[in-house]
Amino acid sequence: MKIGILGAGKAGTSIARAAIAAGDEVAIAASGDAERIRLIVEVLVPGAVPTTAAEAVRDADLVVLAVPMHKFRAVDPALLAGKIVIDVMNYWEPIDGRIDELADAPYGTSVLVQRAFPGARVVKSLNHLGYHELEEDARPAGAADRRAVAAASDDDAALATVLAFVDRIGFDPVDAGPLARGILLEPGSPLFGAPHDRAAFEAVLDAHAEALVA
Ligand SMILES: NC(=O)c1ccc[n+]([C@@H]2O[C@H](COP(=O)([O-])OP(=O)(O)OC[C@H]3O[C@@H](n4cnc5c(N)ncnc54)[C@H](OP(=O)(O)O)[C@@H]3O)[C@@H](O)[C@H]2O)c1
After folding, report:
1. What is the pTM of this model?
2. Residues with Cβ within 6 A of ligand 1?
3. Which CATH number is associated with domain 2-213?
């Protein structure tokens, strides 16, 4: 697959390395032109192409949105129209500042991201583990200690694509259901940062999803 990554920071470069290790083609962009990130990308993500946001997204089968949450509205919605977009962002007040809309989002921040990018096929995933864990905890399919990573979306085909990507980069994929369930994957949820296997992850997810409905 062709993966376009917006954000060449800790999360973006880690996901880029994981995708390259899985055999995907990766183009990666920060907020400016390609020259500003060329050296970082050469060193941290050998094999990835440093480029602009528009170029990274243009031919991508899958886009990863890995910019600081308080900056996501700077991304042009037209760029993401029709694209499957993994929202890996978390709202974190010490980094993002106080933003009431994000802090109080009743169904989580990815619902707001989907609203901001109405043409995109938003899938929340990969946000609930630390960037270093993407490499440290990746395991081949069938490994006894393989960790679960969930994805939530209102677009079934996009969700299936992202779950397959999660599996390819070394984690047991868990279908977390609609995008509004994404709140169960965010900071403050017991699933955030929890290194569960699939069975344990699904058990906690189901218990909390019931509470969400109630
Ligand atoms: N760090 C983690 O372990 C981790 C894990 C899961 C999820 N996340 C989430 O992932 C997001 C990014 O976190 P991070 O730790 O990777 O942040 P970071 O290290 O600060 O990197 C942010 C990157 O986003 C780029 N960026 C900013 N505005 C942009 C735009 N409009 N278009 C394209 N790129 C843009 C920045 O480039 P410039 O220098 O050009 O601004 C920078 O390369 C956050 O929401 C975070 O909560 C982080």
Report:
1. 0.98
2. 6-12, 29-32, 53, 66-69, 71, 74-75, 88-90, 92, 127, 130-131
3. 3.40.50.720
